[in-house]
Amino acid sequence: MPAADTSLPLSADDSAAVQLATQHWLETAVIGLNLCPFAKAVWAKQQVRIVVSGVDSPEALVEVLRAELRHLAETDAETTDTTLIVHPRVLQDFLDFNDFLGVADGVLVDEDLEGELQVASFHPQFQFEGTAPDDMGNFSNRSPYPTLHLLREDSIDRAVEAFPEAEAIYERNIETLEKLGPAGWQALFPPR
Q: Whole-structure pTM over 0.90, yes or no?
């Protein structure tokens, strides 16, 4: 397969395909497998903003991140509670993506949004420290494309209050994913 021409913006068809794959992942894994018990309500209320970005450099992604952090901070939570920035052309390598998370935290500080918003991460090659690449626990943070998830701190606090055993989510996710296994995941997400 030839490399994508990153000098051009994403076509409308490519952008729509990324959007659909992300929505499928949200509905099938995040909500369907209940990997995040807080996601269903905001998804049902249409409070999730998905931004598909065609940028092709980390520097350009910083500007997209900055703009989306500002947008989320200035938007009522009833309209947009959380934002996913999906960026299929930049930070394809997980180690580069992981390194970028420090930059993302710096943008939060620069924008004076630390303590108000936070950035979580999803990636097709996501790997928790100390795990093997094929460890099923890693799939709790595997998305079809590199994705920065912008969350409101107060929404997280409310969700944790409503779900008193929030610390058990990670362990439950590992159990769910191990039962599902690689073949089960593959059945949910056949190769594109």
A: yes
